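Readers of this paper often ask what the protein records in our data store actually look like. Below, we set out a record of this kind in full and without editing:
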Amino acid sequence: MLGRNIVALIMMVSTGALLTGCQKKSVGQTLHAAEMNHSSISATNSLSQKNLGVLPLSNHVSTTITIGKNTQCTLTPTVLKSGDVQIILDMETMDAGGRPQGMNVARVLARPGEPFDVSIGDISLAFTPEIAVQ
């Protein structure tokens, strides 16, 4: 009985250590591209701006793009019945040694073929999602 309690305690402590060591920041909001003001980013904004242009995506297929020297963004689109596309963006930053340093996640709703922008962490991404017909 004492052995099981010790194992359970070790599992709880190690799980807590893993969770506190990770800097994952989950953004639990849905941004609607049609409601966003495209001119809202000013020259004095501290966000790093990246325009990806037209971005070809496939329904339920993740696409990873390199944003900067140590930053990658994985986009996973899902085409909804309405014709809109929900895109989950997972921005991951690495340190110089290649170890994960931080992660930000956002979920956006967009219309295929219409440009929009979204801010994730300290990066502002602008792109036009094009969904491949399957």
Remarks:
- Residues 65 and 73 are 5 Å apart (CA to CA).
- The chain has one domain: 24-131.
- Residues 24-131 form one domain.
- DSSP finds one helix and eight strands in the chain.
